[in-house]
Write a structure and sequence with these properties.
With 278 residues, the protein is an alpha/beta fold. The chain is built from nine helices and twelve strands. The chain has a single domain, classed as Divalent-metal-dependent TIM barrel enzymes (TIM Barrel). The strands form four sheets. The chain has a four-stranded parallel sheet with strand order 1-12-9-8. A four-stranded parallel sheet has the order 2-3-4-6. The chain has a two-stranded antiparallel ribbon with strand order 5-7. The longest helix has 21 residues.
């Protein structure tokens, strides 16, 4: 059976409980995935993380983690890279506690560097992260660098593929809204989505994808603002995306990052179910 799951990026908008119990609420809504947000730092305790793991297992909700946003592995400032390394080490440790199957992060910015120079600095930092985790005996983690939405950021699709092909414990996160914004709105058909899936399969040999989806507003610089899926003034278009994930037959986790994260995740799941072949 193909395993396609939908879920929110963070706690559902009407959920006021603790993150460790969120999977019960998410499952009751009819969703099957949860991306825990460590946006401003990894603050969850080991006890709470272990409780979240048990809750996710009991409810069959697949957990991922989004690492802090203050990460730049290609910075032109060494102290920024050092702090970024520490944050990702903390993220991997917490991911192991909570049983997160992916640890999503934004790789960094080009700053004063060419894309090649920024990539080299990023890879050097990743090597240090993996060495530190090995020393700490942290083994159960999978970093998932995310395609980024601004043209100033390291993280177009080719760069994410290069990072993932260079290291163990790495798999991609494809944010389709970010790719749409970076391309200036050039993802519009099922074939456009299909080319992305084919590229991932050809270059990484995968048939399991962790991804993000929402509608997005963009400028010449790339990403500007996320929008709800019912706002058709913005893309990328949802229907051909749903058609492609059905056609490709991959196991896929779709995390919704719209302003109404769980409600739009339910909308995507409903369209998915109605589009499935009878």
């Amino acid at each position: 059976m193909v395993d396609v799951r939908f879920g929110p990026a963070g706690r559902p908008i009407n959920y006021s409980g603790n993150a460790k119990d969120a999977c019960t609420y998410i499952r009751a809504e009819g969703l099957e995935a949860y991306e825990y947000q460590a946006t401003y730092g990894v603050k969850i305790s080991q006890t709470s993380a272990l409780d979240l793991k048990k809750n996710s297992e009991d409810e069959d909700v697949l957990v991922s983690m989004h690492a802090p946003y203050y990460i730049n592995l290609s910075s032109n400032k060494d102290d920024v890279i050092d702090r970024s390394i520490q944050r990702l080490v903390q993220s991997a440790k917490a991911s192991e506690w909570m049983g997160a199957y992916r640890t999503v992060f934004h790789p960094g910015f080009y700053t004063t560097y060419s894309s090649e120079e920024a990539m080299k600095r990023c890879k050097t930092a990743i090597t240090q992260i993996l060495d530190k985790l090995d020393t700490l005996d942290v083994k159960d983690f999978c970093f998932a660098p995310e395609t980024t939405g601004k043209k100033s950021q390291l993280g177009n699709l080719d760069e994410i593929i290069e990072i993932c092909s260079s290291f163990d414990h790495f798999e991609p996160t494809v944010d389709f809204a970010h790719l749409y914004a970076r391309s200036g709105g050039k993802i519009n058909t099922r074939e456009d989505y299909g080319k992305i899936f084919q590229k991932l399969e050809n270059e990484l040999g995968i048939k399991f994808l962790h991804c993000h989806f929402t509608h997005i507003e963009y400028t010449n610089a790339g990403e500007r603002k996320h929008h709800i899926l019912s706002d058709e003034n913005y893309g990328p278009p949802l229907t051909p995306f749903i058609e492609e994930i059905i056609e490709c037959g991959w196991d896929i986790t779709v995390i919704c990052e719209s302003p109404v994260i769980d409600q739009d995740a339910l909308l995507m799941k409903d369209i998915y179910r109605k589009t499935l072949p009878k």
